[in-house]
Amino acid sequence: MTRANRPTILTGDRTTGPLHLGHYIGSLHARVRLQHEAQQFLLLADTQALTDNIGRHQRVTENVLEVALDYLAVGIDPMKSTIFIQSQVPELAELSQYLLNLVTVARLERNPTIKEEIRLRGFERDIPAGFLTYPVSQAADITAFKATHVPVGDDQLPMIEQTNELVRRFNNTVDRPVLVECEAVLSQVARLPGIDGKAKMSKSLGNAITLGATPDDISKAVNNMYTDPNHLRISDPGQVEGNVVFTFLDAFEPDLQKVEELKTHYRRGGLGDSVVKRMLNDRLQSLIEPIRARRRELAEDRAEVIAILRRGTMRAREVAGQTLSEVKSALGLTYFGN
Ligand code: TRP
Question: Would the pTM count as exceeding 0.90?
Answer without folding.
Answer: yes
